[in-house]
Amino acid sequence: MEQWQRQRARQETGVEDDPRVEALRVAVARLRRELAGYPAELPDRGVAEEELAALDAMVSSGTPEVPRLRRALLLIAGAVGSVSALSPTLTEVRKVIDLFGDMPRG
């Protein structure tokens, strides 16, 4: 999706008014850049890249669903969580996802 299309979608859905969505978009973009620049071979890099792309699509199209955010975070953490160079940025993504609240229990 092109930048102008994302901006229009955010305007139409009212998402641009939610600072959590913008913060998540920025955090996801940063982790995607850092993962792309990480030179070592990671067996599950593809999983992390797919989930980061899915997170980006979710925040571009509206307020994301908390269960889906948490699932994506678990998959990303499983794929890159042991890489200390990516840990601060992964933590940033987790903190922003936490801003969306807890999943309903029951």
UniProtKB/TrEMBL annotation:
Q: Name one Pfam family in it.
A: DUF5955
Q: What is this protein called?
A: DUF5955 family protein
Source species: Streptomyces ochraceiscleroticus
Looking at the record's lineage, which domain of life comes first?
A: Bacteria
Q: Which InterPro entries match?
A: DUF5955
